[in-house]
# Entry
Amino acid sequence: MTTLDRYFAGRFLATLAKALLTLLALYVIIDLLATRGGLVQKHEVPLRIVGAYYLMMAPGIIIDYLAPFSVLTACLLVLGDAAQKNEVTAALACGISLRRLVRLPVALGLIGAIGLFCAQETVGVRAAERAEALDNSYFSRNDAAERVPISWANLSGMWTCHVMKFNRLALTGEGVLIHAFTADRQYQIKARRMYWDPEAACWQLERGWWQEFDADTHQRLRSERITIRRAPFDEKPDALFALDRPPETLPAQELRRRILAAEEHNRPVQGLWVDYYSKFAKPAVSFTMVLLAAPFAMRIRRGGLAISFGASIAIAIAYMLVFAVGVGLGQIGQLHPVVAAWAANGLFLAVGTILFLRTPT
# Structure
């Protein structure tokens, strides 16, 4: 690393740290005043829990939103200030190319993208799990033992199961209706209760009826009383609830495994594939923003902080809009999940590259 690299590295990292802390503080204040404050008062949440919640939220906020735009702001401020003070002109006059000048920020952006992905897969996942637990326990007060209706379709044997009251904590349900259709038969099972038997590794039905009907005439062909009987499908709880956890609480590899398992049961997973590829696309935004900020900074020679900050906001809003549109189209199946997740990165990377190549030296 040369003296020039150390000079820009020190300024860049210091500005990046200030931008990151400032944006994080603003995010917490705005979220607390606009959203979380009412819930804090409603549920009388202790201040230590509020602090712990935002501490657990911080990794996800930084990785998904603040880090890329802090990098953008730092690049615009540092390189823009260097251009305004004619430091860039002096470097070019000494035979140092523009590519050489931005080599360090680009390298730091790449290292930052890799670091953010690693943090997302480790610290980010654990923090998101803890934040979700705090949210359910103190802010929304969701009871894990609450009994709610639930349905599972496309089970093994083409069965569909409906449960009127299901307890996720105890893995028990009441008011069970299970049915399946073949070319010549209709099968219907009604049971008062079902539960997961860990020893037998299966779902058990209690107190009900197993009935078969002719598919054409609907005449009952068979009726058998159920005292205790094994359910006709083989799916385990992990498979049935594989997609219930938020994507941010799962590492990419685990999310992919769950999506593939859900596809085997014909469950809709288009949106989850978008979430999966977004896990790779979001950390890469930091690298994209460096390449986009460099040519903008060379063109912002007057205005200093105000112009640089305004440009950061404009670019950030434009990126978020493009990313939201791409993800939205991916969620409804209009774009392939890979394209949906990476469209914004690809577009802004292309714009940054074109602007950089056309930057006057």
